């Protein structure tokens, strides 16, 4: 199940991501140093700004014209702000993943219904249910704005000024295009490519009347649960269908991918059209070493601890929203674990090092300015400084998504106390904002606080003043229980008194407040320094991206930015676990897996699936290709050269997880639901004849 990662949990607010930065460390020489590496390691996420027609012709002896790319772009959709989708009929039918529909489809659930358990199928148009707040975006306009943005930044002075100049240019351009013919009424978005090497303005037509048509049960959409996540062979019916309405009627569109349930052939070229969320393949080796040593392990620990806390809570509560949050955590844990394994793989890191040397040599040979050639060194130097800030900015961060509500509130009180001491009049005006928090869930509050204290102990050490004050000889769990038991920060009268006498905040013995007075100033100092360095890094990364484009041009695609891309691959097996992966799995494998686990929870089948017709068993269910995908590609259509939908991307295998920083297609595989499998399930199990006819004809 492809989803975005939770890296932003490490640092709250505008500093999120400030530490996706390098630390300079030397690779241990191994035989892997002979790994080739090269521009191809940056992947195949091609933009529609520069369609790769010549590359497709050379690689597949297939020459799509401008109309082919235009029709492909107009049939593709962005599903809300987290997934991909596509039109698959002339009547506004939209295809995406089940795990994308879980974010919205269950919102139409009525009293007495459990759509996760039963699924949903609208037998008639009138039964299709509108999902409030759901929208899909169709990319209809593209404009290159690189020159204007880079000129504006070039005229600015400091790094902060350059970034402000960029944002002003973005705003000015959008205001100008709002009234241009062909752009009026569109959702305008500025898109950054190559970390600032190129910029585009995209105009989206937004459809807001989106109705649920079909969604299988959770047990089929997420068959195998987290155990089977990022694995293959796979047996998940991870699909859902919605419909776009216009003026109360199904949208009429000539831009859609016609369903082809007949199958895919091994070696056949396949194209994925969707919105990959984020890759960081242009990162320098120094930056990746930082991720390997500090950033990624810290993120992984944080996710594991929060998931554990929610699972403990949900054993008795059984709350669907909590369950979905656990799914997201567990999905990210598995994904980031795979990324960390890739970062620790000397072969992959050697490939990155070799490409970096090639890139530097090519930039030098192209006679790029000498100051630009210092970019790699400047990035590494900044990273050395950032490493010294990492612990305080990470383990002392008052983020209510990771440490609970009370410690961030204590930090807010510390800020208020400082304001009262320095500017009493401003503090008096802000007094009304200082209100005692209402703890939403005490069990989770305590578990998150305990997890935070354990992470601070591991990251900062037992001799750190913050850790000493927090634990005071107790375990993190004992300390968290004590702090919550003795705190007065939930007492409105106590908070009112503190706010009235702001200066007392600086001397109060309240335990969480005393702890915040130690940790929060350290966090602020580290975070402010990190912010300044991060601005420098952002400008330097943009410079690196401009160099990449100057050397390789559009022959190398930019990193993913949750913008529409097309990528190419072939239907192909791979070797794993001492055997060979089948290109296609069948429904018979679904039943074998369920019976093999005796119907245990993750592999349990709903009642309607327990007595299948024989004809279903031989039908294809999932298949694999070498396409280059990442989180955000969930719901992307798999199409062939005829622009026919042959599948629906929903996951990658374990070997694909290092794809965030490098694309090596040897064993990297995308996993899709087979178009024929979707039709077979609708025909034999759900009796969704209306939908079958709309998708496949007879």
UniProtKB/TrEMBL annotation:
Q: Does the keyword Hydrolase apply?
A: yes
- Its biological purpose: Catalyzes the removal of dipeptides from the N-terminus of oligopeptides.
Origin organism of this chain? Spirosoma rhododendri
- One Pfam family recorded for the sequence: Peptidase_S46
Q: Which GO terms describe its molecular function?
A: dipeptidyl-peptidase activity; serine-type aminopeptidase activity
Give the family per the record. Belongs to the peptidase S46 family.
Q: Per the UniProt record, which EC number(s) apply here?
A: 3.4.14.-
Q: Does the keyword Protease apply?
A: yes
> Known Gene3D superfamilies for this protein?
Trypsin-like serine proteases
> Hey, what's the signal peptide range on this chain?
1-25
Tell me the Gene Ontology biological-process terms attached to this UniProt entry: peptide catabolic process; proteolysis
**Record's keyword terms, sorted:** Aminopeptidase, Hydrolase, Protease, Serine protease, Signal
Q: Supply the name of the protein.
A: Dipeptidyl-peptidase
């Amino acid at each position: 199940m492809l989803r975005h990662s939770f890296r932003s949990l490490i640092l709250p607010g505008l500093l999120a991501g400030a530490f996706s930065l390098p630390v300079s460390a030397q690779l241990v020489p191994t035989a892997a140093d002979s790994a080739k590496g090269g521009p191809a390691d940056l992947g195949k996420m091609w933009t529609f700004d520069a369609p790769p027609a010549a590359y497709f012709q050379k690689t597949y002896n297939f020459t799509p014209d401008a109309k082919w790319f235009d029709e492909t772009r107009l049939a593709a959709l962005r599903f809300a702000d987290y997934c991909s989708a596509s039109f698959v009929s002339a009547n506004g039918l939209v295809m995406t993943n089940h795990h994308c529909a879980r974010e919205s489809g269950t919102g139409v659930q009525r009293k007495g219904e459990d759509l996760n358990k039963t699924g949903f199928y609208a037998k008639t148009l009138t039964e299709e249910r509108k999902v409030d707040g759901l929208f899909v975006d169709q990319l209809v306009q593209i404009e290159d704005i690189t020159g204007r943005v880079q000129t504006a930044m070039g005229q600015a002075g400091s790094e902060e000024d350059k970034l402000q100049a960029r944002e002003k240019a973005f705003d000015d351009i959008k205001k100008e295009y709002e009234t241009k013919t062909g752009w009026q009424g569109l959702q305008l978005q500025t898109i950054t490519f190559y970390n600032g090497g190129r910029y585009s303005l995209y105009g989206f037509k937004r459809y807001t009347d989106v109705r649920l048509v079909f969604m299988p049960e959770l047990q089929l959409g997420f068959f195998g649960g987290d155990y089977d996540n990022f694995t293959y062979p796979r047996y998940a019916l991870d699909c859902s269908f919605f419909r776009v309405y216009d003026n109360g009627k199904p949208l009429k569109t000539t831009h859609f991918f016609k369903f082809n349930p007949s199958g895919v052939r091994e070696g056949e070229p396949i194209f994925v059209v969707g919105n990959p969320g984020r890759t960081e393949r242009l990162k320098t080796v120094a930056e990746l070493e930082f991720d390997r040593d500090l950033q990624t392990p810290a993120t992984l620990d944080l996710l594991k601890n929060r998931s554990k806390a929610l699972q403990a809570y949900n054993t008795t509560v059984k709350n669907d929203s909590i369950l979905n949050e656990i799914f997201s955590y567990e999905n990210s844990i598995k994904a980031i674990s795979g990324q960390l394994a890739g970062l620790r793989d000397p072969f992959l890191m050697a490939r990155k090092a070799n490409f970096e040397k090639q890139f530097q040599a090519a930039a030098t040979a192209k006679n790029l300015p000498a100051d630009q050639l210092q970019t790699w060194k400047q990035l590494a130097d900044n990273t050395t400084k950032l490493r010294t800030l990492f612990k305080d900015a990470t383990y002392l961060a008052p983020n209510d998504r990771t440490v609970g509500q009370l410690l961030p509130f204590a930090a807010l009180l510390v800020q208020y106390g400082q304001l009262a001491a320095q500017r009493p009049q401003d503090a008096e005006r802000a007094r009304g904002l200082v209100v005692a928090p209402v703890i939403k869930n005490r069990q989770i509050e305590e578990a998150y606080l305990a997890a935070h204290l354990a992470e601070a102990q591991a990251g900062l050490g037992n001799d750190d003043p913050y850790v000493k004050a927090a634990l005071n000889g107790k375990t993190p769990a004992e300390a968290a229980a004590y702090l919550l038991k003795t705190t007065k920060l939930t007492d409105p009268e106590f908070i009112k008194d503190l706010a009235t006498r702001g200066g007392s905040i600086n001397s109060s013995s309240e335990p969480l407040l005393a702890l915040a007075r130690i940790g929060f100033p350290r966090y602020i100092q580290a975070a402010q320094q990190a912010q300044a360095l991060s601005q420098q890094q952002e400008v330097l990364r943009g410079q690196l991206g401009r160099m990449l484009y100057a050397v390789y041009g559009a022959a190398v695609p930019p990193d993913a930015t949750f913008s529409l891309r097309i990528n190419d691959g072939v239907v192909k097996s791979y070797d794993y676990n001492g055997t060979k992966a089948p290109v296609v799995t069948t429904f018979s494998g679904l039943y074998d897996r369920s019976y093999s686990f005796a119907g245990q929870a993750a592999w349990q089948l709903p009642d309607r699936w327990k007595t299948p017709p024989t004809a279903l068993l031989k039908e294809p269910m999932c298949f694999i290709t070498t396409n280059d995908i990442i989180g955000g590609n969930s719901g992307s259509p798999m199409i062939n050269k005829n622009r026919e939908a042959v599948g629906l991307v929903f996951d990658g295998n374990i070997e694909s997880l290092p794809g965030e920083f490098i694309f090596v297609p040897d064993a990297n595989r995308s996993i899709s639901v087979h178009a024929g499998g979707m039709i077979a399930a609708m025909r034999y199990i759900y009796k969704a004849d209306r939908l079958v006819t709309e998708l496949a004809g007879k």
